[in-house]
Amino acid sequence: MPESSIPPPGQSKPWAILLAAGQGSRLAAATGGSAKQFISWRGVPLYWHAARAMSRSATIAGIVFVFPQIDHNAHKERLRELHAADDLGLPWLTATGGELRQDSVWNGLRELPADARHVLIHDAARPFVTPVLIRNVCEALQQGIAGAIPALPVTDTIKTVADGLVTGTLPRQTLVAVQTPQGFSLEQLRQAHLNAQEKGLGVTDDASLLEALGYKVHIVEGEVSNVKITNPDDLALLQDAPALPRPCTGMGYDVHRYAPGRPMKLGGILIPTGPEVVAHSDGDVLLHALTDAVLGCAGLGDIGQHFSDKDPRFDNISSSLLLDQALDMARQAGVRLCHADLTVVAQTPRLAPYREEIKKNIARLLALPQSCVNVKASTEEGLGFTGRAEGIKAYAVVTAWAETAPAPVASSSF
Predict the structure, then answer these.
(1) What are 7-41's pLDDT values in tens digits?
(2) Cα–Cα distance measured from residue 264 to residue 262, given in angstroms and rounded to the nearest whole number
(3) Was 304 annotated as part of a binding site?
(4) Is 310 labelled as part of a ligand binding site?
(5) Is 256 labelled a binding residue?
(6) Model's pTM, two decimal places?
(7) Where are the annotated segments for 2-C-methyl-D-erythritol 4-phosphate cytidylyltransferase (predicted)?
(8) Is 303 annotated as a binding residue?
(9) 386 C-beta neighbours (distance < 10 Å), count
């Protein structure tokens, strides 16, 4: 965790209140009646994107989700499903929304833990908020101020009007457009809300409540991308460009000891001059490293997880079958290999006579052109267990293209 994200002694991380209780009347017709914060984008509701950003900022202690009173339990159950599939790594609570925005905030404040000292208030309809902005607001609060809000300079000329006529022009240099999340000292924000309730004040953001009590609210630089989904035209911001494949890399490593056991195979090729190796499968150290690299590319764990050396099904099994299974799992995950670079490290045997045959066979197993497969051999100049000719090891690095959102993949079918 970066040092800047660690609260000073005596200060705890702020909690966040995520406001998802609005009705979104301006968008109702365009969304079929669904409130904007529940619009599905990239497979999850808008509010979940903001929650992810909170989690990834490493500066938030927990989140209170404020949902509409109607269907509150259904939204809470959906939240449980989202969290089960994509754990935020943060505790969370829920609260019921009120008639006004500030009522919803107050209900959220009432759910905060007793030891909370600071709070961030964020509109769920701002799904593009970044962990960086959240962190900047939290860091400002560490200075002991009452409030910190993100804002951007106003670039348009702003005029006051009445009955269709201009009544004045405001000095642009003194104006900013305010965003969320807004961060506050919890004690002072509660005071401000109680004052508003007593005096019947109605405001559009929490900073206004502190201003009414004379507290100073500080500005941190906002983000142009931190747009609030408000009007039907804003829905175009949720139209993603066609997903481009992403590059990914996997690295594999394996080692086998020399001792009476299995005849040496490398890359599926028998090495008659090599010592025998101890292994549960056929002992192909190079294909084992390659299989591990393929699984790594697809984020699917390691070879031992799928092909345990304790499983009798894999006793003396051909390592090419294990590789083929890993390749099939990677394809299901949307991963397509495009290059493999492999290194065998051994003092003995001498592998130069077998290098091209190994390369050709691995290219066949991977369904790649030979130009996309590289096989190297090296010694360690007498150092270590390989230098003492006690064993052999192999490294594999594979490069691939992966779909942006791969489908879930089952484990080995063996």
Answers:
(1) 444 458 999 999 999 765 555 444 444 677 888 88
(2) 6
(3) yes
(4) yes
(5) yes
(6) 0.66
(7) 1-247
(8) yes
(9) 22
